Amino acid sequence: MNKTFIIENDVNVAHSLEAHLSLNDFHAFAFADGDADEIINRILSFEPRYIIANLVLPRTNGLELIEKIKLNSELAELPIFIFTHLQNPLIKSRCLQLGADYYYSTEEMTLPEFIEKFKKIIINRNRKNYIC
Length: 132
Hints:
By secondary structure, the protein is an alpha/beta fold. It has a single domain (2-131), classed as Rossmann fold (3-Layer(aba) Sandwich). The protein is built from 5 helices and 5 strands, in the order E-H-E-H-E-H-E-H-E-H. Strands 2-1-3-4-5 form a 5-stranded parallel beta sheet, sandwiched between helices. Helix 2 crosses helix 3 (62-71). The protein is globular. The mean pLDDT is 92.
C-alpha cells in the first residue's frame, strides 16, 4: 500500500489531501501540531513510503524539518513532496538542496492538480523501480 504522511497545518488542506489520496488507493495520515522531533517520531511510527509537507508549520521550521528527515537514516530515502503557498525561488532552491524531491506552490496549481501530479510521479517511480 502507498502510505503517505502529510505534514500540513491547515486542517482543510490536510483533510482534502487525505480524502483525495484515499480515493486513489493511498493510505494517508496527516499531522502538523508538533515540533520537529514529534513529527519525526510520528513519521517513524507510520512507516510511510512518501511525505507531503507544507513549509509553514505552527511549531517547527519546515526547512529544518526537511533537513532532520534527510539526516535520519530510517527516513533519508523517502521522497518529500513540498506543497506550500510560498513561491519564493530562494526557498524552493533551499528545499531542494536540503533533500526535498519536489516543490510545488499552491499559486502554481490547485490541490486536485497537485494530487494528479503526485500520482503520476509515484506511478513512474514504481515503474522505474520495477524495471530495475
